[in-house]
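Posting here for the record, re: pyridoxal-5'-phosphate.
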Amino acid sequence: APNPPVTPVDPAASRALFERAQAVTPGGVNSPVRAFSAVGGTPRFIRSAQGAWLTDVDGARYVDLICSWGPMLLGHAHPEVLAAVSAAVARGTSYGTPTEPEVELAEEIVARTPVEKVRFVSSGTEATMSAIRLARGFTGRDVVVKFAGCYHGHVDALLASAGSGLATLAVPGTPGVPESSTALTVVLPYNDRAAVEAAFAAHGDRIACLITEAAAGNMGVVPPEPGFNAFLADICRRHGALFITDEVMTGFRATRQGYWGIDGAVEGWTPDLVTFGKVMGGGFPAAAFGGRADVMSRLAPEGPVYQAGTLSGNPIATTAGLTTLRLADDAVYDHISRAAETVKQGIAEAFTAAGVPHVVQSAGTMFSVFLCEGPVRDFADASRTDVGAYAAFFHAMLDRGVYLPPSAYEAWFLSAAHDEQALDAVLTALPDAARAAAQ
Ligand code: PLP
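Prediction output follows.
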């Protein structure tokens, strides 16, 4: 039987804040997706969060399936993270000197992942930008290869769209990026080995690096086909280019070791450089890039490639990240895995019952739903998702107390704090929301 009708809370206070925000901030937000442009309506301004739940300025509560776009692996306001951060804050918030938590966090990352050395920065964008500079500095080459639909932050050279042919150089993906910034970028279709081979055949001795999301999560979740990352590692090695896996989203999230834990660690290959962010900052601005010791040693002050940051390795951010990673044991990943299975099954049942074409795709504990027939293996496939149906679904879920990503092209995130009560709220909302998507 359908659930009883819901009376959603009128987001009056969010609406008022959004109007004030729009007067002083472009679009009223500090990162575009937050504005609800893709789904319409009023973005909810969140006042507080606890565990799996968000509370907005109108007092409405939502199960959070965004988790700050990935970082909140343990859920919001985890008491041990808060205690560690509060103790760190009391000792002062930034010194611009080396500190112990940086060393400990670097050791933890080196222990969990294939990187031998790591350098901290403050955002994933900085991590990928710096990794590319280092790859160019190390190889003495200038061309960068990336995949359409993979997002690596707003780095000029990576805000690029494919040129007219597969192996041709890219064009700017946004006004403000000069052609000269993308003229050294090649953009290829994801999961397409022939395209990669063609690009290396055309530009092989000029390619400094190939960067890929370890598993694509920014066009919805599109995992690499079996062996694809290993193929990329191999073709890069054969051409003397560096292989960079971007684990900003998947790192310490898809598995304890990131996505590498379910492919490279099993298949026996290692990336030359890896970028991290999100979970490793525990909800604070911290990110990193790391990799082979001989490559990392080319960074200043050990080597000639310049890279720096006033707040890099900030003691509060590194304390939050370190505490989060230390608490993120196998039980945490098992829990999130099981919770993801439960939600994925609920999604499939609800859309099947409502007669809405859909496919749910995963990368470790991350997943997303495409409202189209699957499989979705690249950006062209992902673009077939029905964004209108998603908007209706999104608002029906929001009205029923579930805050999904306000865009059809985003991964859904769960946390260790998504308990039975939170999952029940999601499962209860899904059937009605799927019917809303069918209309
Ligand atoms: N790389 C990936 C894979 C990401 O998902 C993101 C952000 O979503 C970034 C890089 C950029 O990170 P940031 O937003 O911290 O600059």
